[in-house]
Amino acid sequence: MSLFGHRERREIAELTAYVDRLRAERDRLTKDRDAQRAVARKATEQYVALDERYTDTAIVNECLTRDFAEERQVSESLARQIQAMAEQLRAYQQVDGTDWQTQYEAEKKRADGLQQRLDDAVGLKADRIEDSSRWQLASQSKKGHQ
Questions:
Q1: N or C, which terminus of the chain has less Cβ within 10 Å?
Q2: Mind listing the pLDDT tens digit for each residue in 94-113?
Q3: Where are the domains of the chain?
């Protein structure tokens, strides 16, 4: 004979089923919690990496902005200097009456003529180079002389 009656066995079976459902729900909730923690860890890691990249980018951007500003100042300064030089050149041309290019060509022609006269004087003809043994001493090797 059984210690429990039919009703008690049914209640025990219902309670056992209820406990099994609670355990299954607990196991599912534990898995969900672990999955959520893993997602949160991954999101935190990605956020940290993104924040580091943002910080690096912000530093580079700040440096580039500063460099650009400095280069812009230099560029503006050079533009002002070029403008001033152009104004001086225009003023010079107005006073002298000749343009600088004509003066440059004349000076170049004069310098080329002087160079040619110097080359002729030292024996450097355009068609040939003379033997230098007449005015230079022959060099001697130091290998045999110790």
A1: N
A2: 666 667 778 788 999 999 99
A3: 6-120
